[in-house]
Amino acid sequence: MLKSVIVDEHGISVLEEVYERIITHVLNLEEFMKQCILTVMSSVTSGDENRKISRGRRSSSLDEEAGVGDNMGEVPLKKGPWTAAEDAILLEYVNKHGQGNWNAVQKYSGLARCGKSCRLRWANHLRPDLKKGAITEEEENRILELHAKMGNKWARMAAELPGRTDNEIKNYWNTRVKRMQRAGLPIYPPELCQRLLNGNQESQNVGPLTIEASQQDDLSQMDNFDIPNEDFKTFKFLHDPSLEPSIFDMPESNLFEQSLDPSHSYDYLFQSIYHSKRPRKSEMIYNSFGSCTSNVPLFDQYDNYSTEKIYDYPRFSPPFDPVLNTSNQFHGDNINGSHAMLNGNISSSVPEFGAMKMELPSLQYTETQHGSWGMSASSLPRLDSVDTLIQSPPIESIPSDLISPQSSGLLEEIVYNSKMLRDSNNDLFCPDITGTTNEAAGSSTLYHPFKTEWDEQGEPNSPLGQSAVSVLTDYTPISSVDGSQSIETTQDHDDKLEALTQIPNSYMKKENLEQIDFSQRPDALFDLSWFGNDTEYGINQFDLKDALTALIVEESKGDLGEDDKGNLGEDGKGNQ
DNA sequence: AATAGGTGCAACCGCCCGAAA
DNA sequence: TTTTCGGGCGGTTGCACCTAT
To answer: What is the mean pLDDT of the segment spanning A107-132?
Structure first.
C-alpha cells in the first residue's frame, strides 16, 4: 500500500530507490510503530483519557509489576479507562491465546497495558459469561445469605453468583449498606435472620446455609487447644454499655451454632473466629493474636482508634465513638430486631461514619455494637453465651497441622502461635511480665511473629496515626487502663474497669497464680491457661467457667444502661 | 430553568497474599 | 531463597442521575 501510494503520487522512477531504503527501516520499526499507533489511538478515542490517566496517584507497584522500568524508551503502560480499541485487542488476544499469562498480552498484542490490568479488564468486563444489568431480587437475596455466611468474601460470593464479579458484588453491597443505613433499616432483613435460624434448627441438613456449620464441626474436634498462657494474658473485655445489641444483633453463628446447641462448651470458645480479611502487615499488630504473644494488650489497642480502625475482633474493646454514641443513631434501639445496622462494608467516604471502616465478616459488629456481646441481658449468661462474645461465623475448618497465619483467621493464628511458641522450647510464659511496661513491650517483639513494617523501622506512627510506640507502651499488660485514654463512657466505668483490670504484677508470677481469687478478679483468667487441661496453675475449667461468668455478670450488671435494659426487655431477646 | 448538593454506580488503583517457577 | 504471576479485597475516583432550592 505504501508503495502504491508513492507510485501514484510521485512516480516509480523517482521514488523507487527511496522506497527501498525506507522499507528496511519500516520493517525494523514495525513493532515500535505498532505500539505508538495503539497509544495514539487510545488517546484519540478517549477524549478525557489523559486527564484520567494523569490524575491522582501514580502507580508504583503496577509499574513495577508491569516492568515499566525495563521498558524505558518503549511505550509506557497506559492506565485509566479502557477504550474500545483496547478491548478489541484484548479480546482478540484471549480468543487466540486463551486466558492466563496476562503479562504476555503486551508482548503479543502490543497492548500498552500491564498484565494485571488486562486480567481485570477481562474478568470484570470482557468475559463472555458476564451477566450485565442490575442485581436481581433473587441475586440480592443470595448475596445477603452469602454475606451472612462469608462476610466480605466477595470472590467466594461471586463464585456462587454466576455472571457476577467480586467487584460488582462488593460495590453492590457497599451501596446497599449505605442505603440501608440512611433508611435506618437493618442490613440483614429479620426474615433472613429468622430463616437462617430456622434453617439451622432444622439440623445439620446439608445445604448452602449449613455447609459451613458442618465445617465448623471440624473445629470442634480441636478440643485440646493448647493456647499458651500469654496468648490471653492481656485479654480483657471492655465494652460500651450503651451499645448492647439485641439477640438479633447476634452473629448468625451464635444464633444457630451455639445458642441453640446446649452441647457447646467453652471448648468451642474460639472455634470459629476468623478474620474478615487477611490482615495487612501494618494491621497485624492490631489484628493478630500474635500480638498477644507479646505483652501488648491487644484489644486495648483499639481504644484510641475510634474513628480510624476497624475491629476485626469486634468482640473486644469496642472503641467509644463519641459521635456515634452521642447521636445514638445506630444503636440497637433504633431498629428492634434488626441486625447490625452498620454491618457490612462501607466506603470510607461515607461522611456519617467518618473514616470508620466497616469491613466485617458475616453478621459481625461494628465498634458501635460489638462491645458487649452476650451481655445483653441481666440474666446470667450461660457459659455458652461466652461464645457469642468471641465467635463469628466459621469459614473453614482448621487443618490439624499448621497453616500460615497470615491468611488465616484468628483462631488459626492462635493455634499457630500456640504451636510456634510451644515448639520454640523457650519459656514463653511471661518473658518477663513482671517487668516494666516498656520492658514488656520491648520484649514483645521477640515473640511477635508478625512485626509490622513500622515496628521494624522504628516508625513512630502507625498507619492509624497512632504512635506505634505508644501502643506498645501506653498499655501495661492487664494493668493499665489509662483513665485519660479510656474510651469508656463514664468515670465510674473507668474506675470499675481499672479496678477490674489492675492486677499486681506479682500475681502474674507463676508461683503466685494460685493466689488469684477468680471470683473477685475473673479478668485474671485472661492471663492464664484457658484451654486444654492445663491445671498447672491450679485452675480447672470449672473455676474458669465460674470466674468468667462472674466477670460477665459483673460487667453487664454494672454497665447495662437503663435504655439498653429497656430495649432488651422490650424485644425479649436479650435473655438469650 | 439553572444550579448545587447528594447519591448510585462502574471502574480503576494499590497493597497484599499464596503458589509456582 | 527470590522472583514472578495470578488473584483477593479495600479504597478511591469520576460521572450520570436525581432532588431540593
So the answer is: 83
